[in-house]
Amino acid sequence: MKALAVHNLKGGVGKSAAAVNLAYLAAANDVPTLLWDLDPQGAASWYFRVQPEDLKTKSVLSGQTPVGRLVKPSPYRNLDLIPADFTYRYLDIMLKKVEPPRETVSRLLKPFSEQYALAVLDCPPSLSHLADNVFNAVDMILVPVVPTFLSLRALEQVQDYLRAEKLDPKKARPFYSMVDRRRSLHRELTEHRPPAMQRGFQASIPYSSMVERMGQHRAPMAAYAPSDDPALLAYAELWLEIKAALKL
Ligand SMILES: Nc1ncnc2c1ncn2[C@@H]1O[C@H](COP(=O)(O)OP(=O)(O)OP(=O)(O)O)[C@@H](O)[C@H]1O
Ligand SMILES: [Mg+2]
Known about the structure:
Layout: E1 2-6, H1 15-28, E2 33-37, H2 43-47, H3 57-61, E3 72-73, E4 79-82, H4 91-96, H5 104-109, E5 118-122, H6 129-137, E6 140-145, H7 149-164, E7 172-176, H8 184-191, H9 209-212, H10 214-217, H11 230-245
Parallel strand pairs: 1-5, 1-6, 2-4, 2-5, 6-7
Antiparallel strand pairs: 3-4
């Protein structure tokens, strides 16, 4: 099983939208997929209309309760979810108490390797103990970057953090998100990619009201958008690049 985290230190850059659409596209592409919503905001869980199990997160982290009991089916073939519950706001503190440090998410993902080919982890916007655990566990950290200087700075902070924590900086793979080609800065930064974007994917997701409508339909875009919608096509292109990079 390959594991893909969708992460950025910056909030509101399209992490959950990417996690939901990519997990859907992977599953539709015959890759059995588990989407783990790690953000107490629970956006990914909400889009899929999935409620969490009433279980003590603490007992799952310590291994007393099997992590498999958290899994819920999604309305889609090949796609299951671990929904977020509100206790995830304490996830960081809870993880800190489990030894060895950084290993918990890795250990919790192991039992799923028989059943799924891909785990997608939708992360909250922070560089925390949870992020350490996630970065250590996954094969790739997918970083959505809005073409602005602040968003690029957040990407550089993630890359620096990986180096400082002796984690593999090559795991971080950015892509441009919410690209508005009417804006000259967006055009400049997508046409002349700055060094931080060099290991980035070519596909970029346009700014699109069709993506925003995921909240209206509470579904991945492919469930309601026309098949030639530019944002949907961009997610499909991004999925193919990720699939090749992860050798799925
Ligand atoms: N390509 C896009 N075009 C237009 N709106 C978008 C796009 N991607 C995401 N959005 C909207 O922007 C908002 C933030 O998106 P999303 O929740 O995916 O970001 P996030 O990085 O997961 O945020 P957070 O850091 O809060 O978890 C949402 O309202 C979403 O509908
Ligand atoms: Mg999110």
